[in-house]
Amino acid sequence: MSSIKEVAKQAHVSVATVSRVLNNDPVVKPATKNKVLQVIKEMNYKPNLLAKNLRKQASRTVVMVLPSMSNPYFSEIARGAQAAAYDKGYNIIIGTIESKRWILDTYINMLKTNLAEGIVFVSSSVSKELLETLVDEYSVVLCTEYYPGINAACVAIDNKKAGYEAARELIRRGHTHIAYIAGSSASSSVAARIEGYKEALNEAGIPFRPELIAGAKNKFEHVKEIVNGILGQGMQIDGILTHSDLQASYVLKGIKEKSIGLSDEVGLVSFDGTFVAEITNPTLTSIVQPLYDLGYTSVCKLIEKLQGESGDEEEGLILLPHHLEVRET
Amino acid sequence: MSSIKEVAKQAHVSVATVSRVLNNDPVVKPATKNKVLQVIKEMNYKPNLLAKNLRKQASRTVVMVLPSMSNPYFSEIARGAQAAAYDKGYNIIIGTIESKRWILDTYINMLKTNLAEGIVFVSSSVSKELLETLVDEYSVVLCTEYYPGINAACVAIDNKKAGYEAARELIRRGHTHIAYIAGSSASSSVAARIEGYKEALNEAGIPFRPELIAGAKNKFEHVKEIVNGILGQGMQIDGILTHSDLQASYVLKGIKEKSIGLSDEVGLVSFDGTFVAEITNPTLTSIVQPLYDLGYTSVCKLIEKLQGESGDEEEGLILLPHHLEVRET
DNA sequence: CTGAAAGCGCTTACAG
DNA sequence: CTGAAAGCGCTTACAG
């Protein structure tokens, strides 16, 4: 109802002055300012941000897209992202792709139609090709996955080191036939973790067997098939590394219901360290990622970029610390 | 860069005509339309929605606030909500309160500053007092929790019936000392489920013991304390109903690590039916709620309300079906 | 069927 | 220190 014009009339000043006090312009005389402030309060006036945004050609909104929310891994990242946006005075729109291209397009359209100023892509929620077309027109930050050759900041953990540490833990316990259930897509994090895993094997003098590596989705049936597939080739397995807590929980489930041909003596180390790792039985030993911080830092980087003048500095990889949490598996 | 004005110039028409083809106004001559469409494509023009929104005084955006995302219960609701928004051509902003009043205020401010047109509150993400001040000025829908006396549509399951069915299942198995770990807040769903529980006891001739009921948060420590507190009073427990899957998983954890004084013979029925119920060991018997549909329907109702002319019809309770899924506990 | 013009509610040089 | 005025990029009666 009430617009800036009515406030101006009531306060006997111009709309310009009202706008100035709204924006805390120090130039307005205290007496004037107080009068206007009082009228604003009396009228319960709230500025129409639709108008402000148009005038300033800025929505002060960023978007974060994630593959889904079904994995608590992503909700923690989203939580950090939300906090960062508020700390910086931005709105944030968090969306999940659910593997649907049209949903992704909806969010990208927000960029193109001025509804959002920048975007962070979490995990592999976007293809490299699409990214290439976006990167020089819009501000984008990557979270969790790195795309070499793409000029966008990426916030992640040191996946190679993490893969190394996870494998070393199993080796330390005496496991030598270590399967690696990687993520379902060929991503930079998968590649890096495998590299680290190989390094740990190498260090321990254990031969690398490519047959022990396979990707799987975060679905019970898929994980079961993959593990049984490896066993079916006559491979032994006495240790497993999984790409996520969820996958590890499925391994446990399969062992328990005997649909996966492994004994419960198998060593199991998962990635992520979400609450899932603590509610399984046994609880999961895992590489815990600083999920909240990953989300928080990604959004901060994005907003810095939006506010930076040149923005032409080299975009790089920002690594956040992870750690191995030894639990029961 | 390119605005409607430049498209108009290139196409040798007025901006009014460009606007008309943009909005699919059937009045424009096909030849003109095609010419404009072609220029739009050539220039890769995208309308500035900031301007459109201001002009139309509508953001075509709704918000959904949830207490948090840490419980997969909420992420499923959010998933449904997102889908509904897209199906209806709206943007949706999904936010989590994390028990912080200032975050809630941020989202409510989006309503007041014209950034959003309506809001759905999930679970007890808002107090009744605040709701009362919002309800006659803005479009609001409640999801999961009902506030009697508040004129807002509410989408939920029949909690009384669900509580009844959950309790009856335990009674059917021969359990007679059934504890009820309710939600942490005094909410309509808690009250209704307890009513149903009482009804089942009554039907079976089992006396109701108020000492067997206690609220708990979705925290391991809290659930442990509550259960042990009941046992400490000298109460027996051979069955438990929990407000959430998460709480049930904590009971299981406590039994396993012997920090909760219960045997694994205890009957356990949880509410929600999220993936948590399937990854615990044993898996959880639970009342599964149509989470996705709850979110989807809530947003649909909200948008209908926004689009409805009068909007003065009586707001009511919309009940969606649930069912009992018997698993291992 | 199309165009000229007003206006959505703000912000911000510019002048005083 | 304050105001008049232009303008952000659209939409939409109104006139023709």
Automatic annotation (TrEMBL), chains A, B:
Annotated TM spans: none
SUPFAM superfamilies tied to this protein: lambda repressor-like DNA-binding domains, Periplasmic binding protein-like I
PROSITE patterns found in the cross-reference section: HTH_LACI_1, HTH_LACI_2
Keywords, sorted A to Z: DNA-binding, Transcription, Transcription regulation
Residue ranges constituting the HTH lacI-type domain according to the UniProt record: 2-56
One family name in Pfam for this protein: Peripla_BP_1
UniProt xrefs under CDD domains: HTH_LacI
UniProt GO molecular function: DNA-binding transcription factor activity; transcription cis-regulatory region binding
Protein name: LacI family DNA-binding transcriptional regulator
